Amino acid sequence: MIYSLLLFIVVGASPPDSPAKVNDRLELTDGSVIIGTLRQLEKGVYTIDVEAVGSIQIPAARVTAAEVSGAPTLVTDAGETLSGPLQLTEESWLVRNDLGERTISNAHVVAINPTPLAPPTSTQKATITLNGTRTSGNTSTTSASMNMDYTFRYLTHRFNSKLHWAYGEDEEVISKRTTGAELKYDFFPRDSWYFYTNFSARNDRFADLSLRTTAGIGAGIQLLDSDEISWSEESGISALNEDFISALDEATNTLRVAGDLKWSIGEGMMEAFHDHTLFISLDDPSNILAEGRLGLRTQIIGGLSLNTQINIRHDSEPPVGVEQDDIEMLLGLGYSTSF
Question: Could you state, in order of their start, the residue ranges of all structural domains in the chain?
Fold first, then answer.
């Protein structure tokens, strides 16, 4: 009866010549009626603003009928949203809008005007790809490679890490062994551009490379950033040091130019990706070190995917006896997860 008393107070407090206005109404199991402005139905509770009383909450189990004017948003348990005047009678909601009328069982309605979800303050994504071959008989070869990528974004901060490992044997003789890693931190003063600092390391005994390290700073621009596509380009200054197994060691300052592109196609069924990095010597611009990846991930089920990928590395001035270009063509399985 407290709701009937509230209704009496509201009616008694309204001036007799007040202009008419459209109100929402809730009819309760005890026969009383609440008139006001319905704010929302969420988590099984109606919230309605009543003039001269304020906001009150009523359990949904106590509401037998309702009329909601304007264009409220109704959400079903299937994730469907409908907008338009609403009417609840006999355990069914009637929705009217420009598309016509629609009746939905009250049991399938989870919310009216739900509270908007706050955007996540952080996102993480990890991807690992494994590739391998094994042959026996006339030839005996073994090869395996792994690529791992991890990105963590928190408000104006972004951390990126990459890891690459490859190994090969031919007739039980090691023919390939290389490992590389990169760490990078981005700071976004604005949504569209950022400062960065990065460090990378790589070794490759068959390229006479004991250890190559780079460390630098710079700035980048985030050209696109959405759930479907992400594209950034950046440049800066990096110190490059190369320790060789046989050749003379080298150290130089370089201009670093890099880019990264990820494009989700067909609602995540496929993802195309590409990244590249160039180091151009400031002492000799013809001395260029470059590496890049280009590939396509095709979803199999869940986060599991078929991965096709090409890795390319180029050294314009390699040690004697070492080729300028090193190309890997990979086909394997990958797994990605976001959290």
Answer: 2-112, 122-338
